[in-house]
Amino acid sequence: MAKFTSETGRAAGKACKKKGSLTAKVLAKTKDGQKLVDALMRIVTGTRARNADRIKAATKLLEYGFGKPIQQVDTNVEGSFVVKWKDGELEAEKKDGDD
To answer: What is the C-alpha separation between 52 and 72, in angstroms, rounded?
Structure first.
């Protein structure tokens, strides 16, 4: 059975499943998201949906099943920087002496 996953592909955490939360209610009503996945699969494989709807459904399945693709950012910056991954976010700090 499929489990509800976030955009990063991780299973919904305890905080999301807190009793009474919207996520907990959705997970309970949809058999941990399986009914939602099944509905999207019916759209993707069915013959009655428009092509645009099939593409949107397939995109959601891919994004939430495998994670969204990494976006590349090109920059033109002078100086030296230290780049860190902290608490799930990318941080860049300018090195001292580079003004």
So the answer is: 26
